[in-house]
Design a protein that fits this description.
Elements: E1 5-11, E2 14-21, H1 23-38, E3 46-51, H2 64-69
Antiparallel strand pairs: 1-2, 1-3
């Protein structure tokens, strides 16, 4: 499954990127993060899932066929 979301935790004015996940693992990942927050292993805050977007620039060449897989 391709990655679809950037996972971060927002604590006050700070935001910490935790990783990336796909739709199929979004809920289990969220549950695991909540457990780690309860155990005090990661900061307590709001867990956020932001859509991952493909980017192409002059330095990063993209094949249009690659976007079909995303």
């Amino acid at each position: 499954m391709p990655p679809e979301f950037i996972v971060s935790i927002k604590v006050k004015d700070e935001e910490y990127m935790i990783g990336i996940t796909c739709t199929g693992h979004k809920n289990p990942f969220s549950e695991k993060l909540q457990k780690l927050q309860t155990e005090g292993k990661i900061p307590k805050g709001v867990i956020q899932f932001s859509g991952l977007k493909a980017v192409g620039t002059d330095c990063i060449r993209m094949d249009p066929d690659d976007l079909l897989q995303l």
